[in-house]
Design a protein that fits this description.
CATH topology: Rossmann fold
Structural class: alpha/beta
Mean pLDDT: 90
CATH superfamily: Vaccinia Virus protein VP39
Strand order of the largest sheet: 6-5-4-7-8-10-9
Order of helices and strands: EEEHEHEHEHEHEHEEH
Distance between the termini: 51 Å
Low-confidence stretches: 1-5
Strand content: 15-25%
Helix content: 25-40%
Shape: globular
Number of strands: 10
Radius of gyration: 17 Å
CATH architecture: 3-Layer(aba) Sandwich
Length: 257
């Protein structure tokens, strides 16, 4: 897809800077991504830390795909802390991609690539199955319908390796939020875990191609060798929240049977 073929169809974001941060916005009321200028690879927003709770189920994925680049917080974090993982990021908005240097997103190389493309089309024709698929695709109007349809979640399932994990960021206040959860549950045979965000606006959904609970590795809750102490201190509360939600769900299912 040529870089300027349909640039006029996409809203151009802007960068809001403070002495200590840079943030990507479509409107002043909604932050798409935020970066600490002194720690550009850190995860500054809580929901991104919760999404990285996927490492509780697969601490060293061989392959990872992301739909939605934004300011590149998740992409940069994975590039730094998962050095053996092949990473592909798909972003539809050329104006977002044009800001990759502004946010210190690494250049493409053999294991890390950012590509212009439609996320829904990508999962329909994914070139290879992946261990982890992260969906954080928002535009100026919120969650695009193409990234919330039953077909999309079915295609996400097909894109994953057996035992693969889908991680989705959903706005909890969206009018169709419960519909989206139901669609993911149908695509993934109810192997779904919903973790409320600390900010009460973003809920993170983990869905497994196969049974989710056996993939959980509680040893990760001890300091993980992949992270320095500061990074781990920032991640651990979100990881504990994911683990607690999983245990609560398991207990509820056990009582039901």
């Amino acid at each position: 897809m040529p870089q300027n073929a349909d640039s006029h169809e996409h809203v151009k974001p802007y960068v809001y800077e403070t002495p200590h941060s840079k943030a990507l916005h479509f409107t002043i009321s909604q932050i798409q991504s935020r970066m600490q200028t002194n720690r550009p690879d850190a995860l500054d927003l809580d929901y991104t830390r919760t999404m990285m709770g996927v490492l509780l189920f697969n601490s060293r994925p061989e392959s990872l795909a992301m739909i939605g680049l934004g300011g590149g917080s998740l992409a940069k974090f994975c590039h730094r802390h998962l050095p053996a993982t092949r990473i592909k990021v798909v972003e539809i908005n050329p104006h977002v991609i044009a800001l990759r240097d502004e946010f210190g997103i690494p250049s493409d190389d053999q294991r890390f690539k950012v590509r212009r493309g439609d996320g829904a089309a990508y999962v329909q024709e994914a070139p290879y199955p992946v261990d982890v698929l992260m969906v954080d695709g928002f535009d100026s109007e919120g969650q695009p319908p193409a990234l919330c349809s039953q077909r999309f979640y079915d295609d996400c399932y097909d894109t994953l390796q057996p035992g693969g994990i889908l991680v989705v960021n959903l706005h909890a206040w969206h009018d169709s939020y419960e519909v989206f959860i139901d669609r993911i549950s149908r695509s993934f045979a109810n192997e779904v875990l919903v973790v409320p965000g600390a900010d009460c606006s973003n809920n993170i959904v983990f869905a497994s191609k196969g049974t989710l609970l056996p993939r959980f590795n509680p040893s990760i809750l001890r300091k993980h060798v992949q992270f320095d102490q500061q990074t781990w201190n920032e991640l651990r509360p979100a990881f504990v929240r994911v683990a607690s939600a999983l245990m609560k769900q398991a207990e509820g299912r056990s009582r039901a049977t």
